[in-house]
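Posting this for the archive.
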Amino acid sequence: MERGLKFNLVVSELSDRLRKLPYNHGDLSDIGNEVGYILGGIIKDMNDEDIQTFITGFKHGVSLTNGTHFTQP
């Protein structure tokens, strides 16, 4: 993925567009849809491996906050 990642642009767009969502009520799938739409619009050549890499990072971030993260002794 690094080949097409426009990191600062992605971060800026995510921040800006998620802050300005046109609706006040939704669920996690709505947030996921918006993130996917933003990423897909900026990084045109994402493939299944790229998507899995994103999902892996997402799961890791959640696991660090919900107590399911495995740490070695």
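The longest helix spans residues 48-66. The mean pLDDT is 86.
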